[in-house]
C-alpha cells in the first residue's frame, strides 16, 4: 500500500536483495555492579515485508533485549552495544543520530509490550494516547487526531469506540488494553511491528483473539512482524519462520513447519517435548533439566551443555558455530545431525 | 544515547555468591556495605564523641558550667574560655559540652520509648488484624492530625512545674511520635506475615508470641531501626525547640535549646553564645540523620 | 468522584473530633484542679474561678464539656475567652492572616526550590550535580529552624543587610527570609521526593512506550513523566501547609512576627490555657482541612482514584 515517508531513510531497499530489517552479529552487554552481563552475543536474523518471524526463548535468553536494541529503547548505560548492525532498508540504525532514530521509532518500526496496563500511561485517556501519534508526528489538530484515534480503535475491534475514546486505561479489560496498544503501534502504518510477548499476560481465549488480530492487521498492511514469545504454542499458526534463542545466541533458525516436524537443536527439541499434548494425556510432562545459564558466568563452550542430553566432550570446550542445514535452516549444535535424526 | 528503559536479563543475579533471602545475611551484607561508606564512618565518629561528651563531660572541660560571674558577661573567647562567656558570665564552652548529656538522654529515651510503644502496637495491630487493627489505626490517624511540635508544646506547657522537665519533654515527644513507628511496623509485619516461612510456622502450630517475636519481628525490624535512627536526630532538634520556647528543659539544667533561648536577647551584638550551642546542635542532628540515611541505604539497596 | 469526596469527608469527621477531644482532654481533664492548671501559679480571684467554671462547664462530665467547646468552635467560631475576657477568636482573627502569609510564602519557596532541585538531580542521576544536591538536602534537613533562623538573620539580615531582620513592616519582602527558614527541612524532603518520584516514573513501562512511540526526550520527560511524578508532590505540598502553620511558632519567635505562633507562645507564657487550646485546635482544623483538600486534588490528578 502507498505510504508517505520522511526522507531520512531510503524508502525502498536500494541494496539488491537487502531484506526490510536485518540484525547482523548484534552484541549487547549490561555493565552492572556485579559485572558485565553479556545479554546478546552475536545475534543475526532478518525480516521481509509481510513476513512473521517468531523469536523464541525463555527469559534471559536475550530475545527482548535484541528487540529493544532494534527499537533503540535500551537504557545506555548500563547497556552497551559493542558490535553489530541493525539495518533497516539498508541503513544501519545504530549509526543514526538520536534525532534520526526518533523519526524511525513509532513511525516506521513500532513495538507493543507484554503488560498493556503498565505500558499505557495511567493519567491520560486512551484517545489522547493514540491521537498523540498523529498530533506529534503528523501535526494534526486535536479534533482530527481524535477522529483518527476512534477509527483506529474500531480497526482493532474495540466495541463502542466512540464512547470509550475518552476512558482511561484502567477502565478497560486486559485484552482491550492490548488492542489499544496495538492501535497506537499501527497508527502510522509502520513497516515493522515488534510484539514482545503480546499475549503472555492474557487469558487463553483472549490470547487467540489478539493473535488473530495481529495476523489480520499484518495481512492488510503487509508489514513485517517480529513476534517475541516463550510459548511455542502461540507461534505455530502465525509465524513463517522461527529463531530460537538461548543464552544470548540464536541456537536454531528454521521455517516454522520444519521446526515442528524435526528440531535440529536439543534445546528446541526439549521445548517441543515440554508442550502438553492431548494425545499424550496421562504421560509425565517432559521438562528440560537444570536452570537457564547465568549470564554473568556463562558455561564454557556451548551455553546449553550443562542441560544437554547430547553432550560430548567438545561441547564443554568449543562454542558451536551456526551450522547451515539447508538454505533456510541452521542450528548451533555440534551434533545437529544426531538431533535431527533422533526425532 | 537512547533514553528509556530495559532491565538486564533476570537470570543475571540468580547465582550470585551472596544469598539475600535470609535475614542474617541481610544484616551482614548491610554491615559490609556500611563500613565502606564515608557517611557512616563520619557519623559514627561524631556520635562516638558526642556519647563520650554526654557520659564524661569533664574529660572535655574542667570548668564548672554553673560557675557564672556577671561582671564578665559576654566576654570574648580567650585561652581559658574557648567560646567566651554568655549573658550571665558563664563559660559557653563548658555549658555547650555539658548540654550534650540532656540532649542525648532525651533523644535516646524518647527514641526507645517510641520504638517500643509504636513497634509493639504496630505488631499487635498487624498480627491480630480485624478490630484491634481498626481501632489502633483510627487512633493513629487522630494523633497524626496534630502537628508534632504543637502537640508536644501543648502537653509540655500543661504539665509544666508538675513533673521533672526532662521527663516531661520525653513524655510529650513520645505521646505525639509513636504513631509513625506504629505505621511502619504495621506495614512491615503485614508484609512479613504473608511470607511462606511465617505461614509455614503458623501451620506447624507456633503460638502468637513465638510467631511475633521469633518470626515476624526479625523480618520487620529493619525499617523500624532506620526510622528510629533518623528520629533520634529529630527528637534532639525537637527538645531544643521546646526548650527555646520555654516549655522544655528548665534552668538550672543545661540544654542547647535553652542556651540559644538565653543568648537570644543579645544575639545581634553578641552572637557567639548562641552560635556555639547552635553548631553543636546542628552537628548532632546531622550525625544521626546521616547515620539513618546510611543505614537505610545499606538495608534497602533498592532505593539507591 | 462524588462518592470518593463524600467518603473522604465522612472519614475526616471522626479524626477531627478525635484530635480536638484529645487536645481538650490533655488540658482540661487532668487529675488535680483544672482551674489551677488553667490559671497557673498566681491564685486566681474567686470571680475568675467562677467565670472559668462557667465557661468550661467544669461541673459537667468531660464529654459534655468538650461538646460545649467544640460546638462553639465549629458552629459559632467561638474559641472561648482569655482571663481578661477577650475572645480568643478575635485574637486569632488578628494573627491568622500573618501566619497564613508566612506559611504560603514558605510553601511557594519550597515548591520552586524543592521541585527544581529534585528535577535537576533526577535528570542528572548519578552525576556530580545529583550527589551535591543530595548532600545539601542532608544539611538542610539537619539544621534545625532554630539554628538556620538565627544564622540567616545574622548573616543576610545584619551583616549583608539584604533582608529585614524582624517584623513584617516591608510587606511580602519581609516574609521571604522567615519563609525560607520555615521551609528549610521541607525543601530538602521535597527535593528528595521529587527526585525519587521522577526517577521511579521514568523507569516505568509507559515511559518506555512513549519512547517507542517516537516521542522526543523533552516530551517523554516533560509530558509523560512529569504529569505522573507530580502526583505525590502535590500531596506532600498540601499536607505540608498544615505542618508549616504549626511549625511557624519558632520562626515567628525568631523574626518577631506577630502571628498565631506568637499568640500561642503568649498563651504559654501567660499560662492562658484558653489561648493555647484555641490556637492548637484552630491549627489542627487547618491541618485536617489541608489534608482533605489534598485528597480531593489527588482525585483530580489521578484518574484511577477518580473512577474508583
UniProtKB/TrEMBL annotation, chain A:
Q: Which residues form the signal peptide?
A: none
Q: A single GO molecular function, which one?
A: ATP binding
Locations listed in the record: Cell membrane
What NCBIfam families does the database record attribute to this sequence? oligo_HPY
Cite the entry's keywords alphabetically: ATP-binding, Cell membrane, Membrane, Nucleotide-binding, Transport
Pfam families noted in UniProt: ABC_tran, oligo_HPY
What is this protein's record name? Oligopeptide/dipeptide ABC transporter ATP-binding protein
Which species is listed as the source?
A: Nonomuraea soli
| The family this protein is said to belong to | Belongs to the ABC transporter superfamily.
Report one GO cellular component: plasma membrane
Q: Which GO terms describe its biological process?
A: peptide transport
How this chain sits in the membrane, per its record, is: Peripheral membrane protein
Q: Which residues form the ABC transporter domain?
A: 21-272
InterPro entries in alphabetical order: AAA+_ATPase, ABC_Ni/Peptide_Import, ABC_transporter-like_ATP-bd, ABC_transporter-like_CS, Oligopep_ABC_C, P-loop_NTPase
Automatic annotation (TrEMBL), chain B:
List the residue ranges of the region (Disordered).
Answer: 1-22
- What are the alphabetically sorted keywords of the record? Cell membrane, Membrane, Transmembrane, Transmembrane helix, Transport
Residue ranges annotated for the ABC transmembrane type-1 domain, each copy included = 100-292
* Any GO BP annotation: transmembrane transport
Q: Name one Pfam family in it.
A: BPD_transp_1
A GO cellular-component term linked to this record: plasma membrane
**Ranges of Polar residues compositional bias?**
1-10
Q: Where in the cell is it found?
A: Cell membrane
Gene3D superfamilies membership = MetI-like
Question: What's the superkingdom here?
Answer: Bacteria
Q: Where are the transmembrane segments?
A: 39-56, 104-130, 142-159, 165-185, 220-249, 274-295
- Topology versus the membrane, per the UniProt entry? Multi-pass membrane protein
Q: Which PANTHER family match?
A: ABC TRANSPORTER PERMEASE PROTEIN, OLIGOPEPTIDE TRANSPORT SYSTEM PERMEASE PROTEIN APPC
Family named by the database record: Belongs to the binding-protein-dependent transport system permease family.
UniProt name for this protein: ABC-type dipeptide/oligopeptide/nickel transport system permease subunit
TrEMBL record, chain C:
Q: Where are the transmembrane segments?
A: 12-30, 100-120, 132-152, 172-190, 275-301
Would the keyword Transmembrane helix turn up in this protein's UniProt record? yes
**What's any one GO cellular component for it?**
plasma membrane
* Residues of the ABC transmembrane type-1 domain: 96-298
Q: One of this protein's Pfam families, by short name?
A: BPD_transp_1_N
Q: Which keywords does this chain's UniProt record carry?
A: Cell membrane, Membrane, Transmembrane, Transmembrane helix, Transport
Please list the GO biological process terms of this entry.
transmembrane transport
Q: Which domain of life is it from?
A: Bacteria
UniProt cross-references to PROSITE patterns, sorted A to Z: ABC_TM1
Q: How does it sit in the membrane?
A: Multi-pass membrane protein
Cellular compartment(s): Cell membrane
Main location as per UniProt: membrane
What does the similarity note say? Belongs to the binding-protein-dependent transport system permease family.
Recorded protein name is: Peptide/nickel transport system permease protein/oligopeptide transport system permease protein
